[in-house]
Design brief:
Number of strands: 2
Structural class: mainly alpha
Strand content: 5-15%
Number of helices: 5
Largest sheet: 2 strands, parallel
Radius of gyration: 15 Å
Shape: globular
Number of domains: 1
């Protein structure tokens, strides 16, 4: 989803996980190589550039909030073709964020009330279910 929806904890986690994904895709790290969300970037013609575009969106949101994320850590750059994101996956990620925010940042939850989520600009939303690589619990 678009980084402007993320509370502080989620924005920082997104940045850290994006950098870790970049290290795995860029082969500077062997860890985390089986994380299922890496599939969406591995399927791109230029996965490192796609991650760079993703991370740029995150760092721009951090900049807008006055945070200091190390932009120079972004290895790839665009342009890249948009990545398809199903509306089912977007809704799943939105529901996950809302549940997390409700528990840790109730003051941020007000910003998410009655919002129709929008995807990160690098994604194009298409009709479809939750991604096949998503790990679902029985409750979901």
């Amino acid at each position: 989803m678009h980084p402007h929806y993320l509370d502080r904890q989620a924005l920082v986690a997104c940045w850290r996980e994006g950098l870790l994904a970049q290290a795995v895709i860029g082969k500077t790290s062997g860890g985390y190589h089986r994380h299922p969300q890496l599939e969406r970037f591995r399927e791109c013609a230029r996965p490192l550039d796609a991650l760079g575009v993703f991370l740029t969106g995150v760092v721009e949101e951090a900049d807008a909030r006055g945070y200091s994320f190390a932009r120079e850590k972004i290895l790839g750059s665009g342009p890249v073709d948009p990545i398809a994101l199903t509306d089912g996956q977007l809704r799943h990620e939105w529901d996950h964020l809302v549940a997390k925010v409700a528990a840790r940042s109730p003051e941020w939850l007000v910003r998410l009330d009655a919002v129709v989520p929008v995807a990160h600009p690098m994604f194009t939303v298409v009709a479809g279910p939750i991604a096949s690589w998503e790990r679902l619990t029985d409750a979901r």
